[in-house]
Amino acid sequence: MESQNISPREPQDENIIENKELNIWEALIPIFALIGMLFYNVFFVYGDDALSGSNQFILLMGAAVAAVVGFRNKVSYKQMIEEVAENVKSTTGAILILLMVGALAGTWLISGIIPSMIYYGLQILNPTIFLAASVVICAIISVATGSSWTTSATVGIALIGIGNTLGISAGMTAGAVLSGAYFGDKMSPLSDTTNLAPTMAGGELFEHIKYMAITTIPTILVTLLIFIIIGFSIETKGTPDISDKLTAIDAAFNISPWLFIVPVFVIFLIVKKTEPLIALLAGTLLAGITAIIAQPEIVMNVAGAESLTINSAYKGVMNAITVDSAVETTSAELNDLFSAGGMSGMLGTIWLIICAMVFGGIMDAIGALSRISKALLNLASTVFGLFASTVASCLALNITASDQYLAIVVPGKMFKKAYEDKGLAPENLSRTLEDSGTVTSVLIPWNTCGAYQSGVLGVGVSEYFFYAIFNWLSPFTTLLFAAFNIKIKQLVKK
After folding, report:
1. Cβ-count burial of 315 within 10 angstroms (0-12 exposed, 13-18 middle, 19+ buried)?
2. Which of 85, 216, 385, 397 is the most buried (most CB within 10 A)?
């Protein structure tokens, strides 16, 4: 998946709670209530500002509706709170990573790492090839690291900055970044969801990856083609002359390719299977030291000091890690770009994740998730119907449980026997779980993946949704192959 590559409790050991007292219509009541409240909140009142707090409370209101349904069906308050506690506990690693990403972004700004990436990137990547190149770059890094989260938190942030200075909308760039990042994450044997999907389906890892390529390669090729077409058709704002931007960056920072040692070191750690949290912490501390050496004046300015001493150096780096920091240049456009929120800038996203886990926890506790999945399974009378029900179940879990793991675990458990009964190899199920569960999580604003990626990249889900072509095209591709019976692997009994 997702690629944080960590899970405090084993995802395959998730307990799916059943409640025989609950019928399908009661299970859907909280879903309809949540969708209705979110629709009103976003489209009629807050618009793009909904994630600043109101959507979080709406998720709690949806949880309250689910709790009322639970009380009417003999589910105790204690049961609900215990499941919410388990859900919130399962996000501990993600929350810590979010905080560390905020810290990393702050130190990579004041050390000149991100400005250097933008400085050199502006000279290499022109608007015509930029979006397609972003897909390829992020795909390569994500395959190597097994982590879409780390990819977006490192090169993704830099690519957003380069795109902005090239006059390309942040939504387009974010869509390209996520398309490449989730392709690599999905195909990498280092990714936890790539390992989780075949585990739930009863298949083998490398057979799963090999079979998954049948739908994934065509999808990424179509994605690249679309981005190439977009690249030839977009209009940019004075892009050919970027000398003023290069001059502004060069005047504000000490630019050097040596600064890339830090991001290369972080990627090296993750390739060596170092836990992402440890790798990000190492990258943050190393960038802080680099800032003191390479950008002493910036460190002094962030600290509000007139000279560089041990105390001012400590304060400057610590401010970049924890709170808002900004570096002024002669370009107003770059001034908006060269700012970071530190760890405090991630608190809104963390708030959203916690509220989403409250809703998902209560939905699981009252048996609603199990009931919805079973209802979808009952609709599957044909092979295509089975694939379609799996896709629908994964999408429903991403929306309702707000967790990518559950979107793989619950349908995986529910549909495993159905695939066997129809004589289908487990690779069919594991591939469909990834094609619909892994990649679509980032398209849901209140899902942990959507919240994380929009928070890290600084781009709302509504802005990048359309341009995350690989992510929304993948479920259609898997259904297309199922409808025309293309490469549907049969179960071979040993």
Report:
1. middle
2. 397
CA 487 – CA 93 distance, rounded (Å)? 37
Q: Over the stretch 296-339, which tens digit does the pLDDT of each residue have?
A: 999 999 999 888 999 999 999 999 999 988 888 887 767 766 88
Q: Is 44 among the domain residues? A: no
% helix / strand / coil in the chain, to the nearest 5? 75, 0, 25
For residues 337 and 275, give the distance between their C-alpha atoms in angstroms, rounded to a whole number.
Answer: 29
What's CA 354's distance to the chain center, in Å?
16
Handedness of CA 313, 316, 317, 322 (dihedral sign): positive
Task: Name the CA radius of gyration of the chain, rounded.
Answer: 23
Q: What is the C-alpha separation between 326 and 142, in angstroms, rounded?
A: 29
Residues 6+ apart with CB under 8 A from 494: none
Q: Under a CB-based contact definition with an 8 Å cutoff, are residues 342 and 106 in contact? A: yes
pLDDT of residue 229: 93
Up-side HSE of residue 374: CA atoms within 13 Å toward CB? 15
Task: Answer for the pair 478, 387: CB distance below 8 angstroms, yes or no.
Answer: yes
365 within a domain of the structure (yes/no): no
Q: At what angle do helices 170-187 and 127-145 cross, to 10 degrees?
A: 30
How many CB atoms lie under 10 A from the CB of residue 368? 29
Question: CA-based angle 68:70:72, to the nearest 5?
Answer: 75
Q: How far are the Cα atoms of 76, 77, 89 from residue 80, in angstroms, in the given order?
A: 7, 5, 14
Distances (CA, A) of 417 to 17, 211, 424, 463: 18, 20, 10, 39
Q: Is position 45 within any domain?
A: no
Is 72 a domain residue? Answer: no
Say if strands 339-340 and 325-326 run parallel, antiparallel, or are unpaired.
Answer: antiparallel
Structure tokens at 480: 């297309």
Domain count, the chain: 1
> Which of 399, 488, 411, 485 has the alpha carbon at shortest distance from 449?
399
Terminal CA-to-CA distance of the chain, rounded, Å?
A: 31
pLDDT of residue 45: 82
Secondary structure element (H or E) that encloses residue 421, with its range: helix 404-421
- Structural domain that includes position 112: 94-340
pLDDT under 70: residue ranges of the chain = 1-21, 42, 47-51, 122, 144-146, 190, 236-242, 333, 336-337, 373, 376-377, 401, 491-494
